[in-house]
Amino acid sequence: MRVPLSWLREYVDLPADVSARDLADRLTLAGLEVETVDELGTDLTGPIVYGRVLEIEELTGFKKPIRHCRVDVGDANGTGEPQEIVCGARNFAEGDLVVVSLPGAELPGGFRIGARKTYGRMSAGMICSASELGLWEDHSGIVVLPEGFGATGEDAIGPLGLREDVLDIAVTPDRGYALSVRGVARDTAALYGAAFRDPADVAVAPPTGEGQAAEIDPALCDRYVLRGTTGFDPDAPSPLWMKRRLHQSGVRPVSLAVDVTNYVMLELGQPLHAWDRAAIRGPLRVRAAEAGEKLETLDHVRRSLDPDDTLIADDSGPVNIAGVMGGLTTEISLTSTEVLVEAGHFDAMHIARASRRHQLSSESSRRFERGVDSAVQLAAATRAAELLAELGGATVETDYTHIDRTAAREPIVVRASHASSVAGVDYPEGAAEAWLRVIGCRVESDGDVLVVTPPTWRPDITDPNDLAEEVIRFEGYENIPSIPPRARSGRGLTAGQRLRRAVGRTLADAGYHEVLNYPFVGERDLDGLQIPADDDRRVSLRLANPLNEEEPLLRTTLLPGLLKALARNVGRGLTDVALFETGLVYLPKPGATRAPLLPVDRGPGAEELAEIEAAVPHQPRRVGAVLTGNFERAGWWGPGRAATWADAVQAARDVARTAGVELEVEAGQHAPWHPGRCAALYVRVGGERLLVGHAGELHPRAVKAFGLPERSAAVEVDLDRIERARPPVAAPEVSTYPVATQDVALAVDASVPVGLVSDALAEGAGDLLESVRLFDVYTGEQVGEGRKSVAFTLRFRAGDRTLTAEEAGAARDAAVALAAERTGAVQRG
Predict the structure, then answer these.
(1) Is the pTM of this model over 0.70?
(2) What are the binding positions for Mg(2+) in this chain (predicted)?
């Protein structure tokens, strides 16, 4: 909302020394964010004066009409002689009062005025158009002023309002009242303790008879006013002051009838519509649209209407989409002499949905969907009709239509100290009651209890906290002390929070970059992952109002977001990428129904809580990672190493190791991984073996579906299950005795998993074994076809003595023996 300061001062007795920037600071601190203060005309300098056209000589012989004018500018030019000016405009005549920029003046945009010879004549100055002065956008000709506007030679900068400070306010959806000069003026008056003159305080005489016949649907419109005028002059121009204010407020001047409705809307916050009454057939009806109805709106678009749209219709059918845009058939034309002004209070939700459905965000719909004053319609329509009479020569009819189905606002009971308890500040006694009265509330006090009835222009005030907000913002948000919370002893991070942070640090240290993806997916994403139709991951929650129609589902796996992020990075030229994400997935419970809509005046009961719990999906926390290209980059230190399925498995091992959990790895098959390069990951919880995830190389079809490089790998593990498997934290026993290292190489069948050999060695080595680590895998002629050699380092240590070579050798032999028994391994060398 753009508010010229001079317009604001008409309704508020602001101190003269209050600048626009001072006011902007105060309003922003009170919750009306002033984004900018536009200082219009600061780049404009005089002399810019009124001039009277004395003589016009038409110059011929040029490609376009040119006129040589002699203009009386009084003593402004220093001589008192008429000023000679060459001008190409043709919308003025001898005797007209115009605006003249004399040599030395500078117009907006850095345009300097001087004296020069042009078209064979001397031109000393310029007769100005509205656009050249920055008044409004109009290139049709120069500004011709009405008689009596000013005397020749007088300065025109001030009277024309060429210099003006305009507040540009970012109005939030809950403060629709601030989309008007009236609303901003009321807050300004409250902040400065100044007198406020309500522009809606318009004297309205009772009707002398029935006006235009009308009917309303109370569910769509609870107040409807129609005021008619006759004898309107369609050629009457909008006055300069009105066009100037509309332009300063960001609204383009069109014609007098349209400009009047826009002016009153900006002034009072009530959108209006003006009809050519001669084009209306029968009574007007406010009703819902019927299936199949169409309407051509003022933007010349024929629109199919929805049964949820609120319409204004006559006997011929729809003539308006109420609160959004008028119809073309009843538009004010160049011959309209009978104007019917409409002011209605329409249901905000219907207007908001219609505006979005038809993609028509108008100044009218912006106000209706935020909520307008339900009692200002008669004053607004009367104000507009009187302006049409004053400026357009119309006669205001004394009979009019006023249908009122509004209900009185319910009072809100609140403690006087409620604002203090919310803000944590002890406000003075009576402050809450005083501020609530200032904003227009009716307040009845009974000790510490206030019974508050909000005003009609504040539909956003509905509960005690809204009232508290009003008190706090006028007392000053800046006066609320900043007291950082102090954590109680032992109230730090939970074990789960510490684990999640540790996992993130571990993966970052391993070379992965963290990403945060939206939790929304589509059927196309699941198809790209090659997930079978009967897979549980296909069962997902569908959003009622998705941000993107192609992603209406809540994710059941982290992989779609990760793979799309990987493809986006690769598409931007990054060849070596490793990403990870920690986040929730959403798994619907079998037989779950929609959660109940609970009242706000009480807490939920046990049964309601149970219904909510049953409707809320299971939300396990998972860790996923994807990688492609080189996992170890090449450089002066040596050649790089391409990322493989083993790196994805290692990422899972790193997550488990960070949690202090032993991860069991074996071959598996699970979409979207390659069936021959997929690892199933398990942990043990109290003797139960739980599947926690999968890792490996992605299936070629999944790679193609997401546009990824070949051999891309991925891992996804359930962090909640890994956390459940964490053993109790115990301080490790640190031995002071040296370690005994034994290497062993075993030849096994190529189909035997390395993890199975490692587990057998660990079990057979006994309690002296500290760790077992794979350091080599070899296939070739020396081990025979269909065989492989796996080499491990076994570390032995005792807590009470130094091991002898015989003890270490015996433990190694026992480990080899058990590996041979379980896997058919043969020791090499």
Answers:
(1) no
(2) 460, 466, 469-470
